[in-house]
Amino acid sequence: MINKVPESFLKNIVAPNCNNDPHIINAFKTIPRSWFMDDALARFAFEDNAQPIGFGQTISKPSTVALMTYLLAPEPSDKVLEIGTGSGFQAAVLSRLVSAVYTVERIPRLYAKASERIRRLFIKNVFFNLASNSAGWPEEAPFDKIIFTCGAKEIGENYFRQLKVGGSIVAPINDKITLFKKTSEGIEKEENKECSFVEYIL
């Protein structure tokens, strides 16, 4: 396992994709991506590539994680819902930037591995739920922000119901990272960078 994050990784991959946000860069610095990958693949942790984590799932490219985190505009007081825990890396990065992360995973083995990794890091503000992706986490709503780590065709209305007015959702929609903002007048939508994600499955 590689414990030290290379400065070149932060400078060349993370910083350009988070608009040089110092808080996001520091979050990546304190959460080595290698901790969330199998030992056999850890040597690829600081390259800008998605890597398999089993069950047909991947850990996203770090540039994509940095961009989606930046678009989410995390604030220290935010309560965030993540759909698709996967490796746990995105949740761990967000844990350094917000008050609480509520993350939902549908695959039991990934849920178990991610929760074990995060607890080993003594991260106390990430909360896990093993459930269908389609439900979100209504018992803990409303959320300030919601982030999807799996690709989808559209965002279901139930997610907007779980989002506060003034809140936002970042999600890969039809292979484009998309930002939704909930206002008192409705939903605003802004498409961003093209991307490739594993499919959203209920």
From TrEMBL:
Q: What class of enzyme is it?
A: transferase
Which family, according to the similarity comment?
A: Belongs to the methyltransferase superfamily. L-isoaspartyl/D-aspartyl protein methyltransferase family.
Q: Please tell me where this protein is predominantly located.
A: cytoplasm
Q: Does the keyword Transferase apply?
A: yes
Keywords for the protein's UniProt record, in alphabetical order: Cytoplasm, Methyltransferase, S-adenosyl-L-methionine, Transferase
Q: In its keyword annotation, does this UniProt entry include Signal?
A: no
Localisation? Cytoplasm
InterPro entries membership: PCMT, SAM-dependent_MTases_sf
Query: What is this protein's name?
Result: Protein-L-isoaspartate O-methyltransferase
The record, for PANTHER family, names:
PROTEIN-L-ISOASPARTATE O-METHYLTRANSFERASE (PTHR11579), PROTEIN-L-ISOASPARTATE(D-ASPARTATE) O-METHYLTRANSFERASE (PTHR11579:SF0)
State the EC number(s). 2.1.1.77
Instruction: Report the domain of life of the source organism.
Output: Bacteria
Q: Name the source organism.
A: Flexistipes sinusarabici
What Gene Ontology molecular-function terms does this entry list? protein-L-isoaspartate (D-aspartate) O-methyltransferase activity
Give the GO terms filed under biological process for this record. methylation; protein repair
Q: Name one GO cellular component term.
A: cytoplasm
Any one Pfam family here would be PCMT
